Automatic annotation (TrEMBL):
InterPro entries: Cro/C1-type_HTH, Lambda_DNA-bd_dom_sf, TransReg_Diox_bact_type. One of its GO terms (molecular function) is DNA-binding transcription factor activity. This is HTH cro/C1-type domain-containing protein. Residues 8-62 form the HTH cro/C1-type domain. The keyword DNA-binding applies.
Length: 112
């Protein structure tokens, strides 16, 4: 089970809320939330925006399950962390990191 209802339920459980509490926090009824979590209905755009705003989740992840930032989908959390860290570097350090990565690739291809 990996649909949007499953992800919404995960957000609710992560925040230790029952369906009534979570539903109230995002402005829908408990019955509507139950139907969404079971996969019997889809959330409205207003509900999605409310969840995104209230619980600070990535909207692309909420919709697709893919970890994404700025329209980029990452393979895993390591790649995302690397990109986030890289973006904070100055141009000289960015070039140095690229050279190190290229060296690591060349060394990994060299037989022991």
């Amino acid at each position: 089970m990996s649909g949007i209802g499953y992800r919404i339920k995960g957000i609710r459980k992560e925040n230790n809320l029952n369906q009534s509490q979570f539903a109230q926090s995002i402005g829908i009824s408990q019955g509507n939330l139950s139907e969404i979590e079971m996969g019997n209905s889809n959330p409205s755009s207003e509900t999605l925006i409310s969840i995104r705003t209230r619980y600070n989740v990535n909207l692309n992840w909420l919709l697709t399950g893919a970890d994404s930032d700025d329209g980029i989908t990452y393979e895993d959390h390591h790649e995302k962390k690397l990109v986030e860290t890289y973006r904070k570097l100055n141009d000289y350090d960015k070039n140095e990191i690229i050279e190190i990565a290229q060296l690591k690739i060349r060394l990994s291809r060299t037989p022991n």
